[in-house]
Specification:
By secondary structure, the protein is mostly helical. The chain folds into two domains: 294 residues, no CATH class; 225 residues, SGNH hydrolase (Rossmann fold), CATH 3.40.50. Helices cover 64% and strands 4% of the residues. The protein contains 25 helices and five strands. It has a five-stranded parallel sheet with strand order 2-1-3-4-5, sandwiched between helices. Strand 3, helix 22 and strand 4 form a beta-alpha-beta unit. The protein is elongated. The termini are far apart.
Length: 655
């Protein structure tokens, strides 16, 4: 997020530094400490959006009032000086770090750098189909999406503002902007409600512009009041009445409390959150801004106190650095992505590094460029090369570091794979299925029946015994999600002739329809293996429907789940309860089998590689063998009862 530092004067609006500090704090806690209570800390981005819309529009209106025009070149130069230095530092340092770490952290790095350099990261991510809330790939610069939205605003809004100035009244301009804001929020809600991926609605400039537009509307409405305050050159202590101080303090305090309360709400991935919660956060941010900049208010100066002012001044750098540093730490230490879990100590290390790098960037890079410009900064480095030995050493070190970082970034882009290890595992499974020769099962295939007891010769009694038989692949139908798909090669090797119907993003909701179609086409075999627990909690109704479709003459084997997702323990507990309450249903304990061998999983700690696929197949084989043993034992009990009736035997059936 951007921090628009202004001269220490009445033009530096009170409260904005504090608001920026609160916003970036919410976002950083949300990312670095995902197990904390701040489950909705992403609303901090919307606080930034409202601040940006308000402050940039206010600056443009001041320039237009003073000069009668808007200097586009000067405006864009100031934005470039403010934004590019820190952005370039983060990209080159972290891309070089990714090259050193290697693995999934390099996936799509070229596209990410392109999106960052062109301020189009949100649209690049949308085009690539990456997800913000549940991405399995450790996307290094994922947080740059919001920066892209703001930069698109900085590019377009100075061009569009003169059109709104044609409206004669401030309230008319504000009403027009608010109508656009409402349309943007409604558009987000429509997309989410229609089943569109939440990330598209969240990343889209069209669907997520309402916070910025709300800030613009505030700037129009407050323009005259702020102009009068500047002309009076007054201070809050001199002009603030007791009533104003109390009213603004209460209003601002309630708005901040509301923002904190919203940040504690977990997202619902419905229109309740998108746009409901974030629209509410935008409105509360607007109220807090008004309370802060109102003439005579003490609310703004209070929240601008230290350390919030220090954080607010560096909020742009803090926002840029925190996520890439976290991704690199988690990838380097755990070989996973933050979505697979972030230990608190790693989050703490990432926080310390974030504050240190943001401070270094602010002092050494951002402030000099903002003060002297790009040419001036280069001239200063050139002058140092001709200066004292100490200055020359510093200048040479700066140039050498820049060359190394650019080289490291280039090497990282060249080494970047197109897909993650998880995607590779899934693709390998898909290719194994495509290459397998699975003979179509006979339409008349029926479940195995209990074997008849051995025929007795004349005068001979043959005592029945349990007779489990090995289960062949052509007796098994397997239905699953991407974990089963990644395990397809292992299943085909372990059970030649098995039918595997697996696809990504499936949950238990999909199970009944798939099983019913297989049953109707005569392809549902004696043993039905279902693995649909990875992508969300179980649906009880769907589970019952699947059991009914499988029926009492077949055996249902449910594979439990292993993934760093909070619903997995509930899924596995529900599967165990379901199997215990339904005769003929068994559980393949994939979770226990792979828990001690997570090195056999891809970087997302969900999808098995080649060796992991064999563990998955062995787990299924164990459960199928247990089910076959139970079938044989049941058949044995039936045969023993028939034997006793036939021979009036006193043989006791073993317990």
């Amino acid at each position: 997020m951007t921090s628009h530092t202004l001269p220490r004067s009445p033009a530096r609006y009170a409260g904005l530094d504090g608001m920026r500090a609160i916003a970036v704090t919410l976002v950083v806690i949300y990312h670095l400490f995902p197990a904390s209570v701040v489950q909705g800390g992403f609303i901090g981005v919307d606080v930034f959006f409202v601040i940006s819309g308000f402050l940039i529009t206010t600056l443009l209106l001041r320039e237009h009032t003073a000069t009668g025009r808007i200097g586009l070149r000067g405006f864009w130069q100031r934005r470039a000086r403010r934004l590019i230095p820190a952005l370039a530092a983060v990209v080159t340092v972290c891309a070089t770090g990714a090259w050193l770490v290697g693995g999934d952290v390099l996936v799509r790095l070229g596209e990410q750098v392109l999106g960052a350099a062109t301020f189009s990261y949100n649209w690049v991510s949308i085009a690539e189909g990456t997800g913000y809330f549940s991405a399995a790939t450790p996307e290094l610069f994922r947080n740059f999406w919001s920066l892209a939205v703001e930069e698109q605003f900085y590019l377009l809004w100075p061009l569009l503002l003169p059109l709104f100035l044609l409206l004669p009244r401030a309230w008319g301009r504000a009403a027009a902007v608010l109508a656009l804001a409402a349309a943007s929020a409604v558009w987000m809600g429509v997309m989410v409600s229609s089943g569109t991926d939440v990330t598209r609605a969240y990343f889209g400039t069209d669907t997520h512009a309402f916070g910025i537009l709300l800030g613009i509307a505030l700037a129009f409405l407050l323009e005259r009041m702020l102009a009068r305050a500047r002309q009076a050159d007054s201070t809050p202590a001199a002009t603030g009445s007791r009533r104003v101080r109390i009213a603004t303090g209460l209003t601002g305090g309630v708005a901040l409390a509301g923002l904190v309360a919203l940040a504690l709400l977990p997202p619902t991935f419905t229109a309740v959150t998108f746009p409901g919660t974030i629209a509410a956060a935008s409105i509360l941010s607007g109220i807090a801004i008004v309370a802060g900049v109102w003439p005579g208010s003490t609310f703004g100066p209070v929240i601008d106190g230290q350390p919030l002012r220090w954080i607010g001044d560096r909020s742009y750098g803090i926002y840029l650095w925190h996520w890439p540093l976290l991704v690199l730490l988690v990838a380097g230490i755990q070989r996973t992505s933050p979505d697979a879990g972030v230990p608190e100590w790693i989050g703490g290390v990432a926080l310390g590094l974030t504050l240190a790098t943001a401070e270094l960037s602010y002092r050494v890079l951002e402030t000099p460029v903002r003060r002297y410009g790009f040419r001036g900064s280069l001239a200063r480095i050139s002058a140092r090369l001709l200066g004292s030995p100490a200055a020359r050493v510093r200048a040479i070190a700066s140039v050498a570091a820049t060359v190394l970082l650019v080289g490291g970034t280039s090497a990282a882009i060249a080494a970047a794979p197109d897909v993650s290890s998880a995607q590779s595992a899934v693709q390998a499974g898909r290719e194994a299925l495509d290459a397998a020769v699975n003979p179509a099962p006979a339409a008349s295939a029926v479940p195995a029946q209990p074997q008849a007891p051995p025929a007795a010769t004349s005068g001979q009694r043959v005592l029945p015994t349990p007779s489990p038989t090995p289960v062949a692949g052509d007796e098994i139908t397997a239905v699953g999600d991407s974990v089963m798909l990644a395990s397809a090669a292992g299943l085909l090797e372990r059970f030649p002739g098995i039918t595997v119907d697996a696809a990504v993003s499936r949950s238990t909701w999909a199970g009944p329809g798939i099983l019913q179609a297989l049953s109707d086409s005569g392809q549902l075999r004696s043993y039905v293996v279902v693995a649909l627990g990875t992508n969300g909690p179980l649906n009880a109704e769907a589970m019952e429907q699947m059991a009914q479709i499988v029926g009492p003459d077949r055996t249902l084997v449910l594979v439990n789940a292993f993934a760093p997702r909070d619903w997995i323990p509930g899924v596995n507990a529900d599967l165990a309860v379901f199997a215990a309450s339904h005769p003929g249903v068994f559980v393949a304990d994939w979770s226990a089998a792979i828990a001690g061998h997570t090195d056999l999983l891809a970087g997302d700690q969900i999808h098995p590689g080649d060796a992991g696929a064999r563990v998955f197949a062995d787990t299924v084989a164990t459960a199928v063998a247990q089910a076959e043993q139970a079938r044989a034992d049941a058949a044995y009990q039936v045969e023993m009862r028939a034997y006793r009736r036939l021979h009036h035997s006193e043989v006791r059936v073993p317990e």
